[in-house]
Amino acid sequence: MVNFELSSEQKEITDMAMKFARNEMMPKANEYDESGKLPMEILTKAWELGLVNTCIPPEYGGTGFTTLDSMIITEALAYGCLGMNTTLMANDLALLPITIAGNDEQKKRFLTPFTESYKLASFCLTEPGHGSDAAGIKTTIKEDGDHYVINGQKMWITNAGYADLFVIYCTTDPELKHKGISCIVLDDKNVEGLEIGAKEKKMGHKSSDTRAVTFNNVRIPKENLLGKLGEGWNIAKQTLDHSRPMVAASAVGGAQCALDHAVKYAKERVQFGKPIAKHQAIQMMVADMAMKIESARLLVHKAAWQLDQGETNTLLASYAKAYGADMFMEVATDAVQIFGGYGYSNEYPVEKIMRDAKLIQIYEGTSQIQRLVIAKEIFSRS
Amino acid sequence: MNIFVCIKQVPDTETKITPNGDGTYIETTSIKWIMNPYDEFAVEQALLTKQANSGSTVTVVRVGGVKDTETLRTALAMGADDAILVEADDNLDSFMTAKALKGAIEKSGNSADVIFTGKQAIDDDCLQVPQLLAGMLNLPSVSVVVGCEEAGGKFTLKREIEGGTLEVYEVNSPAIIACNKGINTPRYASLPGIMKAKRKPLAKHSLADVGVADSDRRVKYSNFQLPPEKPPGKKFDAMDEANQASIVAEVVGLLRTEAKAI
């Protein structure tokens, strides 16, 4: 019982999201890459059309998409611009812990405002000294009456400069490693002791807003804790099972865009008396690129499908993320190669895509960490 | 207000077109279909008219192939209330299409207060259906409309004519308005709109249901073919001053005898 055909509704979603990517995002992608500004107008329009926060359940004002639907949307938006997509996707990453572990009251209080107007949210896990080694985080959480007090610093936090809501991972005792981690929501950006750093200057995804966030005795009401103290690691893992295929979907979108540009260029560019598309050297590269993209897309769809079936997808999620990200880097590099000297110039779009591709191998678990997850799953089963 | 919109499904402009085996139409198996771009303006104008007249309904009508009904769903997702599909081959002529649209609109039981269409379809570029439909329904029609304002059932329409000049018409409802680019900016079908669209009514009729018979065909297509490939251009090297006079003479001669341009 295998069916690879998207439903007619999913095809319509694809068409609509691709139309948005081509008409609204692509024409402005370079401009925002150069200025590094947040394209608020485009992001708001995407929100108005229902392309953002796809993880919010219908009971709390969301549209009620399946995980697979959200992969299709992400692929299209990443086709339009990886940087803008990172801003949009970061919202899902931050809201997912709430949909996964929040109680009814928390879901109403935290999620509903995101369905009423366009707002940004930040997922705060990584710290200056703890990226891949996330279980070693040092940001602390301490009880004080009816509040928790948070102290510590987070690093590379997407959307931080504009966020109305922060999902913070912290620990009751760093010695406890993953067993000590908790997850709490800060929904007051004006709270005393919250310090948002300067915008980081990055290689790619330049329009997305990335900053350090520091908590100096930040007091958060106890009712903002997701789950119980010490359950944060499990919440983070479940969040990543959703978000990693999504990042992989963005790799597929970006790679497809790079391939489409390269194919078009190969048909126009004449060398040795014929379009380079007629040269086998180029044909080999294009065939490899297309195969890799479709393989990654299938992994993404299967990882999403597993979640929609109510199954655990940790292994597939890591397959998709590792393969998708590495595939994207290779495809983007080959696209630049097909463009030759022109590909290295920012006059042509593949230069930006290659810079953008690199981050996909790094954020939400590096390609190496994904392989560790995969190996651990395999050895624990055999 | 009962607002109708007639839309056509056409091959995507980026689709590669090939004639079918017997030359009676194009190969449709591998085509990606889209809503005729001029019809998107018609849908948008219908929705704007609805917004300005509370209690109005927008019914979208399409005659044609049944492989995909996606363009009707797209119109519903944009905000139309219901849809009618007249199932038929894709290669109907303009007369049959207009007659089928007339039959479908009449069969709906609602008398049209206004019918919006695109000014032409980008596949066969016939530019006939709105005018034929107006003739059959005995309604006034204005085409190539780039401005449309409605108040109290009276439409003030700006129509583009040669040289960029505008004609202004005042037309009382009911009327047929054929839209051109520039009249509005079509909205996107929102994702909640797409989810809602699948629950909106879509009525299906055969050609016979709407009173169209094979004998209504006025145009028979028999020999679709691709345009001949353009011969490569000729280059003349006139950098060398000594040869320039003779090259100019040669070019002028070829323009007369070969290109027959002068």
Notable characteristics:
heterodimer, A: 382 residues, alpha+beta, Butyryl-Coa Dehydrogenase, subunit A, domain 1, Butyryl-CoA Dehydrogenase, subunit A, domain 2, Butyryl-CoA Dehydrogenase, subunit A, domain 3, four-stranded mixed beta sheet, four-stranded antiparallel beta sheet, B: alpha/beta, Rossmann fold, two-stranded antiparallel ribbon, 25% strand, globular, Acyl-CoA_DH_CS (chain A)
CATH architecture of the largest domain in chain B: 3-Layer(aba) Sandwich
Mean pLDDT of chain B: 93
- Tell me the major beta sheet of chain A: 4 strands, mixed
CATH class of the largest domain in chain A: Mainly Alpha
Strand content of chain A: 15-25%
Order of helices and strands of chain B: EEEHEHEHEHEEEEHEH
Give Rg of chain B in angstroms. Answer: 23 Å
Number of strands of chain B: 11
Give the termini distance of chain B in whole angstroms: 57 Å
CATH topology of the largest domain in chain B: Rossmann fold
Q: Tell me the name of the CATH homologous superfamily of the largest domain in chain A.
A: Butyryl-CoA Dehydrogenase, subunit A, domain 3
Report low-confidence residues of chain A grouped into runs of 5 or more. Answer: none
